[in-house]
Amino acid sequence: NVLMIFDSWSHMIPNNFFKDCAIDPIAKIVQILRSKKIFCPVIGFPFKAGPSIVKYSYESRVDCISLDWSMDLKWANTNINKDIALQGNLDPACLISYQNNYLKKNVLAILDIMKERRFIFNVGHGLTPDCKIENIKKVIKIVKDYGR
Fold first, then answer.
1. Average pLDDT, whole number, for the chain?
2. CA 38 to CA 48: how far, in whole Å?
3. What's the gap between Cα 35 and its chain centre?
4. Is the pLDDT of residue 123 over 80?
5. According to the model, what pLDDT value does residue 28 have?
6. Rounded alpha-carbon distances, angstroms, from residue 62 to 5, 35, 42, 51, 115
7. Inter-axis angle of helices 52-59 and 24-35, to 10 degrees?
8. pTM
9. Which residues contact 87 (CB under 8 A, 6 or more apart)?
């Protein structure tokens, strides 16, 4: 139903090469998919791309951009192409323990910032082996109950 392209090394690309090495190859992949009549949404994940993510959002042809946990979400929401959806940003470390409502505060902060935008709730990179399943269940409940 959806294709997600992880560029886990995009943060290693110098800014002056980012278009050639990160944006253009993803745009080419999306173009090839569309030419083959494959129209599922494409999520791009330029890990820790920083400010280069803005240009990526306009030129890569992706339908959605996944954001790592280090991205300032307010900045991203203001600067990234409004025509595409955003995904992610929860620090996977939040899922290790559930103390002092830290997890709930982080989840609600993300939901509040993104409430006016097409958004897929997700962690900002992957789950770590030490995350707690009960915390994942808590996140799902918080997201489902949000705005009720």
1. 94
2. 28
3. 26
4. yes
5. 98
6. 9, 15, 5, 17, 21
7. 20
8. 0.91
9. 43, 64, 65, 66, 67, 119, 120, 121, 122
